[in-house]
Amino acid sequence: xxxxxxxxxxxxxxxxxxxxxxxxxxxxxxxxxxxxxxxxxxxxxxxxxxxxxxxxxxxxxxxxxxxxxxxxxxxxxxxxxxxxxxxxxxxxxxxxxxxxxxxxxxxxxxxxxxxxxxxxxxxxxxxxxxxxxxxxxxxxxxxxxxxxxxxxxxxxxxxxxxxxxxxxxxxxxxxxxxxxxxxxxxxxxxxxxxxxxxxxxxxxxxxxxxxxxxxxxxxxxxxxxxxxxxxxxxxxxxxxxxxxxxxxxxxxxxxxxxxxxxxxxxxxxxxxxxxxxxxxxxxxxxxxxxxxxxxxxxxxxxxxxxxxxxxxxxxxxxxxxxxxxxxxxxxxxxxxxxxxxxxxxxxxxxxxxxxxxxxxxxxxxxxxxxxxxxxxxxxxxxxxxxxxxxxxxxxxxxxxxxxxxxxxxxxxxxxxxxxxxxxxxxxxxxxxxxxxxxxxxxxxxxxxxxxxxxxxxxxxxxxxxxxxxxxxxxxxxxxxxxxxxxxxxxxxxxxxxxxxxxxxxxxxxxxxxxxxxxxxxxxxxxxxxxxxxxxxxxxxxxxxxxxxxxxxxxxxxxxxxxxxxxxxxxxxxxxxxxxxxxxxxxxxxxxxxxxxxxxxxxxxxxxxxxxxxxxxxxxxxxxxxxxxxxxxxxxxxxxxxxxxxxxxxxxxxxxxxxxxx
Length: 661
Ligand SMILES: Nc1nc2c(c(=O)[nH]1)N[C@H]1C(S)=C(S)[C@@H](COP(=O)(O)OP(=O)(O)OC[C@H]3O[C@@H](n4cnc5c(=O)[nH]c(N)nc54)[C@H](O)[C@@H]3O)O[C@H]1N2
Ligand SMILES: Nc1nc2c(c(=O)[nH]1)N[C@H]1C(S)=C(S)[C@@H](COP(=O)(O)OP(=O)(O)OC[C@H]3O[C@@H](n4cnc5c(=O)[nH]c(N)nc54)[C@H](O)[C@@H]3O)O[C@H]1N2
Ligand code: SF4
Ligand SMILES: [Mo]
Hints:
The strands form 7 sheets. A 6-stranded mixed β-sheet has the order 5-4-17-16-15-6. The chain has a 6-stranded mixed β-sheet with strand order 23-25-24-27-22-26. The chain has a 5-stranded parallel β-sheet with strand order 10-9-8-12-13, with helices on both faces. Helix 4 packs parallel to helix 13 (303-317), helix 8 (220-233) packs across helix 12 (273-285) and helix 11 (262-269) crosses helix 12 (273-285). The longest helix has 19 residues, at 80-98. Strand 9 (194-198), helix 7 and strand 10 (211-213) form a beta-alpha-beta unit. The protein is an alpha/beta fold. It is globular, with a radius of gyration of 24 Å. Bound molecules: ligand MGD (2 copies), iron/sulfur cluster and molybdenum atom (MO). One ligand MGD is lined by residues 11, 108-111, 116, 137-138, 377-380, 384, 405-408, 410, 422, 424-425, 456, 550-552, 558-560, 623, 634-635, 651.
């Protein structure tokens, strides 16, 4: 029996350090690493079952070639040699006819390893193909909003939350998506800190919170502005901090705050005037208020404004200046590694860029040249992209040569001409930096690739060689590429010796100070991205009465765990959740099949009725493959329109109704 220390590569902010027990080449146990201060000896309820992911009977064993219509899932096994020969021949033909921009290839986030993800993107960069602006389906809006206030730099260290005197879970379902932060919250609560949860849904955290504020969906900027109004009115702002560390608050105070009276704030947010007053008073009284800002509030047409206004609050009380206070959205921007070494080894500075959430649109409509070849790794846009019906029409294009690299036959892979079996993270080695903590760590390979599966890393180097690319990174080992990533690293990361990292466990670049700002002024900017405000959702035409609330599932992280039967069962059948009043109004019962419909189409799910969500919204947890639902998948109802900042996805600016199936 061997114990191998590695890193969880799933798309999750915690980036746990894992101890994997291997017996005769087989994983028998996965545990959290007790030597990692945040992982603290436990992995989440999904990953401590990752044996079932690795050894799932649904894993792909060999490369496949399509034998039936696109989308039908009919394939026949072929050898790697045949698969690679065909891919390279088709890509070369596309380049000869249309130039490299006729190809679009990318790896997305289901493998967080900097090499398994980055080097594959580096391959397409070097080839000069059309490029995908990834992340617009996820965090580009939230990031742009944060950057407009604080600059491109990480937020509060999750470890500092243990020192906080007030904890706020603001649109973040910690038990589902950030479970190790919860342990820090518990430590702070044991020392007397109060927990407030602000969410349109009574989450598990809300149930154990000191105070739950059931805010109306999409109205967070109003609550933040209402709180600022009260703090200004009552003289509770930290004027010295505002003067020294921020710019633009005078304009917010003069031009915006007068409108956000407690009454107006209450009317918009659906909270009572007393709640708004009480929230502002508690926030103002705290010295070290720690806000965990979630991404949910950004997934609206005006989502950027929601998020940036919340990110401004700690500037008003000076909480940003104190360790234990401030706000945490993400940390990734503070790791100043030389990512270009893997992501941009060579290739033109610019070529055509396709926004991730408009991938369907680009495949259908891009011309000069049209996109004739598509390569997708670690992403399942046929389910997770908005306007999935359009996405699938695009994938169904007979003249599009599609290759999908995935451990499973995902809904997207069913549209591929060639499917390549991918390893899981336990079958590769890589280097990781967290996006929700300040740790980085080298992840060792625990076991050999299963069946004929090959890692993203292996596949990249193989394809690069066959396409005639000679950049050294395409023939280097992982430890040598790591040295390239640290050559020219800046800030705290520059202190580490990359030669030592493969033998080390987790290392932190965190520091004990307050929030630094990386804006043009070097200060927190209240007005650089325009004055903060609240506006109603423009998609609300009143034609459809309910608004979509959609968040990751507890046991089905997007679709990456859909090949694990136990976790599918734990999550339950794909469902929609309605408040009892909304269900009664429609004569609908818990457990029946229902049709969710709007101008874009309809899908079938099982109805759950629960008072945990507010009237006026319908919650659809997770994004689940069609085959598991009564019919279809939730993003068929969502438009591929942009948020106000960062060109992100507007999943929750979706209005719909629910009827019997
Ligand atoms: N309605 C709605 N839609 C959403 C969201 C929402 O909250 N609501 N959330 C959005 C967000 S935040 C995100 S990040 C996206 C996520 O969307 P996706 O990136 O599509 O995530 P997954 O569905 O997990 O798909 C990842 C795929 O990668 C495969 N995979 C796993 N590991 C590897 C590997 O090592 N190599 C390769 N080649 N493949 C691998 C998995 O089997 C799976 O098929 O979804 C977005 N869509
Ligand atoms: N286990 C697990 N962990 C994950 C993921 C996963 O799928 N599974 N996904 C990872 C990825 S890719 C991402 S991007 C992150 C996602 O992280 P987040 O997007 O932060 O997702 P949640 O933690 O579900 O937080 C969303 C919460 O916001 C609430 N909410 C929705 N709209 C509003 C609103 O208008 N106002 C307020 N105040 N609250 C609102 C929802 O009810 C929900 O409780 O998580 C990452 N971590
Ligand atoms: S909590 Fe997140 S990082 Fe930790 S094991 Fe689970 S999915 Fe992986
Ligand atoms: Mo995401």
